[in-house]
Write a sequence for this structure.
């Protein structure tokens, strides 16, 4: 039971941000699933490890929404892989996700940085 | 339906292919870093997690809007029933009584009128009867039993 709820928490935590992260990573250029995991890990200073159990459902969800498109292409090492690229609708979605994200961060930040009243630290 | 199924299996195949490509690339990276192919494959599979589960969860995302809506309707119905337990109880009771009564009547009807008689060739059964000589029919008349 504890494990299940833990899992649920992780999913919820990711749900909002993972889509945004993936769209942003795809703005750097078309990429396949494995490449996206690597890119997010590398550019987050090794902090973000996207799990495949979240990654592929998210990619397929984004594709269904029309925010990304996919095509089979050759990688640099001559492997066939399914590359995703961001669509115009995806870019619009990314912009709105980003502004919502910034509002959330500001709101949480303003609470976390507020000092207790009457206490001059 | 056949078309749909073909579409679905080809998508399933494509997803397997996509995940297989992921695994191959991950293995290749590890081999390039000097791991043995076997150790690399094992490490990658461990890192990837449950392949079947990942596929399952991914397939759920394809969605089936109609089926999804049906599921919503059903869960809505159950929520409503739970909100009004009295109504639910009466509805269930009436259904139960209706179905029960129908079943009871039909099982009698079935036994008495529809079932064949418990003999070897029921369609060869004949009824022998006598008729008076004034009528223009043979005295011993046989006809097929109407029961089958």
């Amino acid at each position: 039971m504890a494990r299940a709820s833990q899992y649920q928490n992780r999913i919820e935590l990711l749900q909002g941000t993972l889509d945004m992260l993936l769209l942003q990573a795809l703005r750097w250029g078309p990429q396949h699933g494995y490449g996206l995991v690597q890119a997010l890990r590398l550019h987050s200073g090794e902090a973000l490890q996207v799990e495949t159990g979240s990654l592929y459902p998210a990619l397929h969800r984004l594709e269904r929404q029309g925010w990304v498109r996919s095509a089979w292409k050759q990688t640099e090492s001559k492997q066939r892989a399914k590359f995703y690229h961001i669509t115009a609708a995806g870019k619009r979605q990314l912009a709105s996700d980003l502004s919502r994200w910034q509002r959330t961060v500001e709101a949480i930040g303003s609470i976390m940085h507020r000092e207790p009243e009457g206490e001059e630290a | 339906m056949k078309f749909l199924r073909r579409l679905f299996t080809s998508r399933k195949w494509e997803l397997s292919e996509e995940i297989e490509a992921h695994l191959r690339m991950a293995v290749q990276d590890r081999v390039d870093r000097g791991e043995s192919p076997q150790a690399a494959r094992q490490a990658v599979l461990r890192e990837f997690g449950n392949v079947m589960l990942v596929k399952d969860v991914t397939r759920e995302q394809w969605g089936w809007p109609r089926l999804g809506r049906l599921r919503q309707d059903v869960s809505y119905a159950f929520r409503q029933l739970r909100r009004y337990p009295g109504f639910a109880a009466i509805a269930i009771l009436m259904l139960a009584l209706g179905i029960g009564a129908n079943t009871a009547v039909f099982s009698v009807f079935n036994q008495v009128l529809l079932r064949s008689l418990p003999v070897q060739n029921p369609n060869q059964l004949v009824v022998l009867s006598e008729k008076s000589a004034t009528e223009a029919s043979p005295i011993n008349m046989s006809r097929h039993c109407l029961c089958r």
Observations:
- Confidence is low (pLDDT under 50) at residues 6-12 of chain A.
- The first strand of chain A starts at residue 31 and ends at 32.
